[in-house]
Amino acid sequence: MPHELLDERLIGSYMRDLGALMHAATVLVGDRLGLYKAMADCRWLSPGELAARTETDTRHIRETLAEDGTCLLVEPYAADRLEDNLTPVGRIFYAASTMVCTPCSRSQDVGLALGGQAGEARLREVLEAAGFTRVRRATQTPFNLVIEARR
Fold it and tell me: Helix/strand/coil (H, E, C) string of 34-81?
């Protein structure tokens, strides 16, 4: 393996670790404020709703989200077109989504129920409607799609 590639991997690993360390303080503050417990029901909350649940001023929530406004969305992997999802794994995901995800979504106030599988394009629309302006595919596996969204 060439030295340049090893150097690049080492620097990349160092930067990821440094970034994680720098965000540890915000995670601790979020935990102490109860932000994670308030979001545990897996539904999207506006800053006002999150502030009400944590008895925090909306301004503080907005400032925190503006400063650390990154959301990583991990979803079952799905393409945008139905015919591209008709794989053995895709069929299992459609069945699980129909039985679990769609009814759960319908029971919530927002109730988007994106369908059996939401591909990257539909997820992008939802995130942009929620106020995220920079949305990109961070990574994917055969089973998951990871979307990074920033304010």
Answer: CHHHHCCCCCCCCHHHHHHHHCCCHHHHHHHHHHCCEEEEEEECCCCC
Furthest-apart CA atoms within the chain: distance in Å: 55
Helix (H, G, I), strand (E, B) or coil at 150: strand
Pairing verdict, β 144-150 and 134-140: antiparallel
Query: Given this model, what pLDDT does residue 137 score?
Result: 92
Element (H, E) at 82: none
The two three-digit tokens of residue 85, written as one number: 């999802």
- Given a cut of 60, whether residue 89 has pLDDT beyond it is yes
Identify the band that residue 62 occupies on the pLDDT scale cut at 50, 70 and 90: low
Q: Mean pLDDT throughout 122-136? A: 83
- Residue matched to tokens 């591209």: 84
Query: Are the beta carbons of 105 and 113 closer than 8 angstroms?
Result: yes
d(CA 41, CA 36): 10
Q: CB under 8 Å, gap of 24 or more: what pairs does 20-23 form?
A: 23/68
